[in-house]
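Lecture 7 notes. Example A: sequence first, then its structure tokens.
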Amino acid sequence: MFSRMRCLVGGGVQDSPRSAAKRVSPASWRVDTAAAEAAAGAGGKGPVICFRPPDVMETVHEVAIYIHRFHNLDLFQQGWYQMKISAMWEEGGTKTPASPARVVQYEASDVGADDALGIWKIDDVDNSFYTQPFRIKYARQDIYLSVMVSFNIFNSEEEGPAASAVMLKFELIYAPTLDNGSEIQSSSVASSAAVHEFRIPRRALLGLHSYCPVHFDAFHAVLVDLTLHIVYLKAGATKPSLKVPDQGLGPTSYHIVKALLTSRKMLLEELKKISDAIGKRIEDLDGADLNLGKYESVNPTNSGLPNSSKVFPATGKGVGQLAGILHEFLERPNDVVNGTEDSMLYTLPKEELLELFLTVSGQLSLLWNAFLKFHRINKTKILDYLHDVWAIDRKAEWSIWTVHSKIEIPHRYLRSMNDDSSHRHSLLRVSGSRKFHDDPVQNSASRAELHRKSIAQMKINTQSVQDMHIYADPSRVPVVLIEQHVMVVPQHGSSKDLALDASEQTDTIVLPKLQGDSLAPKSSSGKKSGRILRAIIFVHGFQGHHLDLRLVRNQWLLLDPGADCLMSEANEDKTSGDFKEMGSRLAGEVVAFLKKKMDKLSRYGGCKELKLSFVGHSIGNIIIRSALAEPALQPYLKNLYTYMSISGPHLGYWYSSNSLFNSGLWLLKKLKGAQCIHQLTFSDDQDPQNTYFYKLCKLKTLENFKNIILLSSPQDGYVPYHSARIELCPAASSDTSKKGQVFTEMLNNCLDQIRAPSSDTRIFMRCDVNFDQSNQGRSLNTMIGRAAHIEFLETDLYAKFIMWSFPDLFR
């Protein structure tokens, strides 16, 4: 181990074994910078590393990072990759830098001889850790690294517990291969490809056990399965004397003891949770003495921890009990390390304070080492458990940027359009809960901006790891307004009333699974029962590319790794034509894709169930609906599962208020003669009731989906807001002409499909996405609404918030 840890020896210095031995000291000791500089200035021939033993109450935060798996989700380039990991104080100052303390290869790497190069290493210059280099050759490739590195983050006795957060930096290093594809080029060619940073709040530095996925960025989409485990310990392996030093204890001694007791409490609680969740005992703690001696008897009934016999059944020595004298002190909701007026703690004499410090730190060391061994034995079960807990917590943690509401949809929005009086009466009746004289676009934008301002003033105080892709600037993250329209519709022939009250609807909302239920997709392994084919079809928009929706696809694959995705190419460079023709091409492509996948599954017992989902962007949604009306897809309509429409003009471009964009559409029709633009603007026939969109809305293209999610943005000027949401707009509500009647009939036809009778509960959601455009200024893209329309393709945070809040809709 020491031969690999080059930080323990001076580079490039030739010494005798005796002199070298003087400079190599236990890793738990700290480098004495002043002594090292003095030794180097006194005639030393090279850099000298001097060590000093830790102070009596010197402490350390140990951050153990288990790197389980590197999954290539969407890397663009083949080649050699490795990860560089470093840790540093958020407010560094003169603090000792965090440094790798130990590395454990807890399982032999499964990387083949041709796909691995060298071993892991520690860089003692910048105190970083490098994983073993590995070669990426294809998409969805798994590399099991199975290595643990722990960083020691020291606190001197004068500093006390951490007063700053710690930043974890993961860097993806890339080097191309030679022409023969099997050898790496010189190290000088290697470069940093992407960075993903996480912030560990100082409260979490006292104790944390969490799953922490690393994704890097949109252009280097991977999934690195990590778990983080943090504990606060006494520095040094030796046990100091119980005698108080001549210089006495420092002013931070009480804070240090309090923090250690908190760390002990948190570690015991987490050990119990993990042990119970995976159904395994921590045998190394059987019979362990975890009493706090005389400090237990002051107020033992106030213990905040479970009974010891329930934590570790084999021991009856007070496991899980806090010092009663410090219970109220530790349980206060305020910061656990900053209290200065806690008289009960300050009444302890120095000798007893030191004794309590040594007792607690000894127990922490015992518990921590027992956990590390327990983790090595049960690594997979612990990873699965922590992943499930993390997944369940997503909706709550990301609720900062989502606003949820429940909107009741009556059995019928509007009456028949046979006469104007009926038309006006029904509009007034239905719109009673919504004021149509107010602009819905402006209302949505104002709500989102108000929420964004509240986020900017919010003090986010969390004990969980913070992903800096999101938390670096919380006020610039997309805000998502989610309206849940949950309708329990009766089966065919049932006489149940469709219009349920709000309380009945609330009970039908799809919620994340309860803790303890694995969130990983369950796949059948038996050949007799067959397998489930979950197919997702992604369809680009006007003049788009088949990879336009890859960020949404990647999020879907993170939720459901077993899904089969088709990035439609049938209409690439062909989106100016007729929607019916585009739909026919997509239908043929989908059928060929499904047959290919089913033929493959026939070798493993066949396909026992098919779940077919669609995701479309812009006019890709019209192509999807056109394809669903094609005869080729009729046999698969019963298998439709989730439909996610991203800014789709489902009601065409009638009542578009974007005059600049409307002018552009007019030019496209005149100069290019694009048939799809004529269809979108209802100019493909003089009679509106003979246009393509009117006929499409009459076809049953939506009613077979179990889940329908309509995404829109009030900032998107390329697609009318009401058209993306399939709802009434103020201009249409006041239009008594034939155009208004035809539009309302189209709207009714679409909504009737969503309300159509079904044997299952149908989930219908409208999601408004408000992007931060403060950096874009008053550009032409923002003025015409193009920026938001394209932003749906260039960021995945909005999709992440929606999909992880309702995971059952996407698996």
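Example B, a different protein, same format:
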Amino acid sequence: NKRLTPAYRKYLMQIKGITEEEAEKEKYDSNSLVLTPMDIVLATRYLINVSKNPEVMDTKDHLGNKRVRTVGELVRIEFERAFSRAQRLIQERLTLYNSLDKISIQNLINVKSIIAAVNQFFATSPLSQFMEQVNPLAELTHKRRLTAVGPGGLRKERARFEVRDVHHSHYGRMCPIETPEGANIGLITSLAVFADIDKFGFLTTPYRKVVDGHLTEEIVYLTADEEENYNIAPSTIKIDDKGFIVDTKVPVRYMEKVQYVDRAKVQFVDVSPKQIVSVSTALIPFLEHDDANRALMGSNMQRQAVPLIEPEAPFVATGMEYEAAKYSGYVVLAKHDGIVKKVEARKILIERTDEQGNVLLTKDGAPIVDEYHLMKFIRTNQDTTINQTPIVSAGDRVRAGEPIADGPATDMGELALGRNVLVAFVPWEGYNFEDAILVSEELLENDSFTSVHIEVYETQARETRLGPEEITSDIPNVNKEQLKNLDENGIVMIGAHVGPQDILVGKVTPKGEGETTPEEKIIRSVFGERGKDVKDTSLRLPHGSDGRVIDVKVFDKSEVAELGAGVNKMVKVYVACKKPLDVGDKLAGRHGNKGVVSKIMSREDMPFLPDGTPIQMVLSPLGVPSRMNVGQILETHLGWLAKLTDSWFATPVFDGAKEDEILPLLYQERRVSGLEDGDNEDSPSGKVVLRDGRTGQEFDKPIVVGYIYMMKLVHIARDKIHARSTGPYSLIHQQPLGGKAQFGGQRFGEMEVWALEAHGASHTLNEMLTIKSDDIRGRNEVYKAILKGKNLPEPNIPESFKVLVKELRGLALDVRVYDEHGNEVDVDRI
């Protein structure tokens, strides 16, 4: 019926000959549930209008036809299901009793089924997710995520293009930029900055009301349906000091069209230029100069930035950094006005004051003191670190809502995901070919991109068929050197430095009689029961890891009831590791300009400015034109201007600084600093003449130089690097396992076989498919031959062939193998 209201107004204007304002005052009961003749007339007129103007036809992708099911609603649905199940059970049980006297509430109601239903929802539903905690922004974004997939939603395989596409009704409600790149593109989105959800579950966005060309202070939240009936102007229109619109004709959005109307007809104005995008996207300066594909990568990669040891707020910001950090919950804010009394690493004490600065007292005459406890080196879900540090000193006066302690990736209360780096856009000896990045050693010396990661390792002492497992420092066949970090209970001591394969928790498991070898029996007879039938199942640090033990938690069955069946004891060891920037690490800017560190150069070999300042990072100029993310160049110029003037700039999205505003100012500041070489005052380009650090020679052309905000992403090469010698094999196929977790090898697949065939590398191919894979006898013989320095023997039949024969026999096919002389070969004995 709401759709018929405008049709009703037009109908009245034609029939009665009245104005639009008078028609608006006439009442049409759109909430009536009774069908009237007027409804039939209006519905017919609406259908005629749709046939003449197809753009007014509604679509199922319009946000007016979609609602958000919030967390509370999803939990309510689970409770309703659980209660209806419980109701049915109660009714069934009631029929079993003859008299009401025998009935008790405890016998009737089974609370466990209700608890189990809710627990199952949180444990197994795809909508209940493990929170992203790489940095504060990742957490904030995850909490504001919208999805069209999951229970009661779409399947990503079936979702058509129209569902994924940006719709005009998303304006101010769902971000058109931030969405995953893979199969979920357009299905998983993010709430816009100012979007809200009304009591019916519809997304709303705020607008300022306009009356006769004058902007009022009234803020109105409109749903996608309500918005269709109004002329809405952008927030960037010119307004005079008294709040009146300056231009006579103003661009407005009406339904899905953009048109120019008289300023008196403007009914609403956007509250902000950034209301169209999400928090993550609103952190990208010069977003309006970036291609949408690269902006998407930029907003997604900010969520992957690891918190650094020394975070630094960006020189070129958007003004959203403070708000994002504040609402992430990791920055500690003062609850009341006060004076800082005491500052410790883990605690801040503040005496409350009134607005005049007088200390407030309790009834006893003692000052009222607020105590703030800080989080120190707490592990996140993604192994990054939460560490809060005070930013106030004793005696400082603070206001309510002011930041008093920084969290991870924050600097003086502002979000700081990376560092400001002096960059130059120039090809350099091929080291920045294909998005590779050349980095100066200076960034390592300053610990600019060093991060701390905390990993947790756990082991359980269980009750086994042969007896209980035991956590102990008395481990068989282990030398004293390996036990030096363990205490008397067999658990590693806090503060110990541990490396690959070091024992964290000593544990022995009972071994069956059948597993003892003759040698072990002799040892047992000589040394008695202490050389007993136990095997070493200690918790060791994995390959490629090292660090310092910062915490150990021991859970005993007698103290903790939730350990699980058959578990007597559980030990968790927390190991912190400092990871400086290294070759292979992924770095990225805020414009989707990502790359991998290819080489770390000494600072004296890096290109340098006319005043001798060495460049810290060399990027490829070819990464800009085809990607169309020109925002990074503008950020480079403005970043250098910020450095030269020792200031910080905020350039909000869709309302930022312009190129012709930045470059003249930059030229003037460079002139003052003696760095104007390579530029022209009449048409400044922001370029400078650089010299090669190795030869001192000038480069052929002036080069774009400036400061870009770069982040180190969670894809760290050190965590991915892996090597395998002799390792575990698959039980059935007897082929090496795959993946770092299984200590596996690199897969030699079908296409790799073709590559060796194409080159005629027959011996290499033979080895790959036999002794380096699943020829058990062959690989043992080769090992012996290498040890004895003999020639390598001929390969045997691989295990995969034997498995194939067995599987064919399982299908009742009598497969037999013959040699070149026609004699049958017994495959099982080879």
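Note on Example B: The chain is about 25% helix and 20% strand. The two ends are 82 Å apart (CA to CA).
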